[in-house]
Write a structure and sequence with these properties.
By secondary structure, the protein is of the alpha+beta class. The chain has 3 domains: about 110 residues, Orthogonal Bundle (Butyryl-Coa Dehydrogenase, subunit A, domain 1); about 110 residues, Butyryl-CoA Dehydrogenase, subunit A, domain 2 (Beta Barrel), CATH 2.40.110.10; about 140 residues, Butyryl-CoA Dehydrogenase, subunit A, domain 3 (Up-down Bundle). The protein contains 10 helices and 10 strands. The strands form 3 sheets. It has a 4-stranded mixed sheet. Strand 2 and strand 3 form a beta hairpin. Helix 3 packs antiparallel against helix 7, helix 6 runs parallel beside helix 8 and helix 8 runs antiparallel to helix 10. The longest helix has about 35 residues. It is globular and about 80 Å long. Acetoacetyl-coenzyme A binds next to strand 3, helix 6 and helix 10.
């Protein structure tokens, strides 16, 4: 077993680290406060090839491996988890699925601009009445000549206002449960397609999340991904891929909490010495470091398995489940170590907790990950 990164992986990680420090960190606090989308940062990420990292150069992507993607996601999310999720959705939930299942038409017209980062993507599966129970889609698509007419509502859509292309799952045959769901690409500006107001979220506030509404929205037949009735399988396979993205985001937040705690505990004095000299603090830091490392290894394992063409569904679910729980735990410990200062905005750790919580919810809750893991084990 080889735990060493290649020169290229180290270079990509270091580029992401440097970019995060110089370009993302200076505006992170203000964007969080104002809930402001990082438009200029996303443009610069595109110039680095970070919006289509794993897409083949044949489709204008950067052709990097999944381990490099995970490392870059960790570094970006360590500084700003909002930027992390914007990047993750475009890379893993949108580009990945389009490259794997899209027609030549879709790859040429949608994947290429997404991979270049000129256009932004969103993934619309969840609905007001269908979150974890994703087969219960109510959005309906009815065929009309060479178009399909969509009616319904999606919600909790990351990049919901800023995206240009939306992958939308809809029922095309209610009788067939999940085998009656189809995936479509809907372009921003299509008649009958509007979005709701930006949600006022607890965390990842600088990413935009909103609902989408479809009222007699006509989508051309050629915008169907894979084929009619394959939309649920498409969504599940895409989410399997997305989960190491969110796992990496969570590892990034856990790393940030750890670093902030180490720094603060060497500065803050109590009972006549720096608090780092107290065993109560030392034990917390040891546990935070151990858990972060374990989360990182699980995440890189899932990414490496994917790169090796090996099964990775169970491992990606484990990575997402474990890393998200570590992100929350580390953020809570970081606040405890900072005491009252951890509870106010002057220090960054309160944001880490607000940002961490969503990683236990989106792209499959912790409970869904336990279903995916246990099914894989019991079926083997
Ligand atoms: N990978 C691949 N295929 C899978 C799968 C997986 N992990 N899980 C289920 N499937 C397939 C099954 O093989 C089956 O296909 P076939 O009939 O062709 O064999 C089909 O899906 C239906 O399977 P089940 O009958 O077992 O489905 P279920 O209803 O019992 O459970 C579930 C499925 C795993 C609970 C699923 O509904 C699920 O993953 N729910 C969570 C949805 C989710 O993650 N939502 C996140 C929203 S996206 C988001 O957050 C985006 C964002 O903006 C950040």
């Amino acid at each position: 077993m080889n735990f060493e990164l290649t020169e290229e992986q180290i270079m990509i990680r270091d580029t992401a680290r440097e970019f995060a420090q110089t370009e993302i960190a200076p505006s992170a606090v203000e964007r969080d406060l104002k809930g402001e989308f990082p438009t200029e940062i996303v443009k610069k990420l595109a110039e680095l090839g970070f919006m289509g990292m794993m897409v083949s150069p044949d489709y204008d992507g950067a052709g990097m491996d999944t381990v490099s993607y995970a490392l870059a996601m960790m570094e970006i999310s360590k500084v700003d988890a909002s930027v992390g999720v914007i990047m993750s959705v475009n890379n893993s939930l949108v580009c990945f699925g389009l490259e794997k299942y899209g027609s030549d038409f879709i790859k040429e017209n949608f994947l290429k601009p997404l991979a270049r980062g000129e256009k932004l993507g969103a993934f619309a599966l969840s609905e007001p009445e269908a979150g974890s129970d994703a087969t219960q889609q109510q959005t309906l698509a009815v065929k009309d000549g060479d178009h399909w007419v969509l009616n319904g509502t999606k919600n909790w859509i990351t990049n919901g206002q800023s995206a240009d292309y939306y992958i939308v799952m809809a029922q095309t045959d209610r009788e067939k449960r999940h085998k009656g769901i189809t995936a479509f690409i809907v372009e921003k500006g299509t008649e009958g397609f509007t979005h709701g107001v930006k949600e006022d979220k607890l965390g990842i506030r600088s990413s935009d999340t909103c609902s989408l509404n479809f009222t007699n929205c006509r989508v051309p037949e050629e915008n169907i991904i894979w084929e009619v009735g394959k939309g649920f399988n498409f969504a599940m396979n895409t989410l399997n891929g997305g989960r190491y993205g969110i796992a990496s985001q969570a590892v990034g937040i856990a790393m940030a909490s750890l670093d902030a705690s180490i720094k603060y505990s060497k500065e803050r004095k109590a009972f006549g010495t720096e608090i780092a000299n107290h065993q109560a603090i030392q034990f917390k830091i040891a546990d935070m470091a151990m858990n972060t490392e374990a989360a990182k290894l699980l995440t890189l394992q899932a990414a490496a398995l994917k790169d090796a063409g090996q099964p990775y569904i169970k491992e990606a679910a484990m990575a997402k489940l474990y890393s998200s729980e570590v992100a929350v735990k580390n953020a809570l410990e970081a606040i405890q170590i900072h005491g009252g200062y951890g509870y106010v905005r002057e220090y960054l750790v309160e944001r880490y907790l607000r940002d961490a919580k969503i990683t236990e919810i989106y792209e499959g809750t912790s409970e869904i990950q336990r279903i995916v893991i246990s099914r894989a084990l019991l079926r083997d």
